[in-house]
């Protein structure tokens, strides 16, 4: 299953191929209980039944496709509620067993240039978190507002449209940036009309900068691209293939003095050359990176610690929570592909604030929200 940003990229790309053909966008706007996908999962359906993305693990897509084609035919948005808490076979014809409730907003899109797609387009390539505001329910008098989407900058337009105080929307946006969690908010205007707004928090892709030029780099980049990370490379360009070069979103030379680093960046040092790894490590130690992985045994990193101390650097590698050495989760990895799996899984746990334990040992639900 792709990451949220990877799914957005695929949806925008598919929409841009449709020319004058009508389509509809289905978005998971609320979830309670258990579900395969969470708020923000999307699927785009063309009038002839083609689709990309997904709102579940495959069990709801068939019905959602039919609902999307119906919305296209009627020319108006609709909200569908899939309630599997009672495992009702009659609702969509299959027993899901998920015990959850999923609300999906299905909105017909204007060909060529729809506002909903335009806002998604602006998110692509962004290296900072963004917030989108979606009107997901409204009293009958205002039902034509259903499905309208805005960005955080346009919050005053949302307030004016609904007749609520601007600070109410702004406070919700600030809270969402702070909690980093999407939420559904109920609002009432002065006339006591009720609205529901999805305040959707969208993070940029996790950027993983891999340092190395050996064959194991390909496994790391291939798997990272597959799961939706932004994979970049530090290497000696003449030691990697043209294919490897093209698979990386950005390529730096070992001699580069600066790398583009933000709070969603991880660094993986896997040059198999002690001196190269050590010099690169010194360049990034003060960059406030959440994850620095060092390939190789702990003794190798301990040696780096000694060398840093001799050079006057007061930095504890072995005790610092951002240094992962040996890098990767303990899955018994022995091949390049398994090491890539182990490392990228560990990076995911760090950026999702999880511990990487067996899910069957987790207390409570799989998802925090």
Can you give me a brief rundown of this structure?
This protein has 369 residues and is of the alpha/beta class.
Structural summary, described in words:
It is a single chain. This protein has 369 residues and is α/β, with parallel strands linked by helices. The protein has helices at residues 4-16, 61-74, 89-92, 115-123, 155-162, 166-179, 216-227, 242-247, 274-284, 298-310, 336-351, and strands at 23-33, 42-46, 51-53, 78-83, 100-109, 130-138, 149-151, 183-188, 194-202, 207-211, 230-235, 250-253, 265-269, 291-294, 323-324. The chain has eleven helices and 15 strands. Strands 12-11-10-13-14-15 form a six-stranded parallel sheet, with helices on both faces. A five-stranded antiparallel sheet has the order 3-2-1-5-4. α1 packs across α4 (115-123).
Helix count equals 11
Q: Which outline best applies?
A: elongated
Q: Biggest sheet, open or closed, and with what strands and sense?
A: 6 strands, parallel
- Radius of gyration, CA atoms, in whole angstroms: 23 Å
Counted beta strands: 15
- Beta content comes to 15-25%
Structural class label: alpha/beta
The ordered H/E elements are HEEEHEHEHEEHHEEEHEHEEHEHEH
Helix content: 25-40%
Taking pLDDT < 50 over at least 5 consecutive residues as the criterion, the unreliable ranges are none
Cα distance spanning the termini: 19 Å
Across the major sheet, the strand order is 12-11-10-13-14-15
Mean pLDDT: 90
Give me the oligomer status.
Answer: single chain
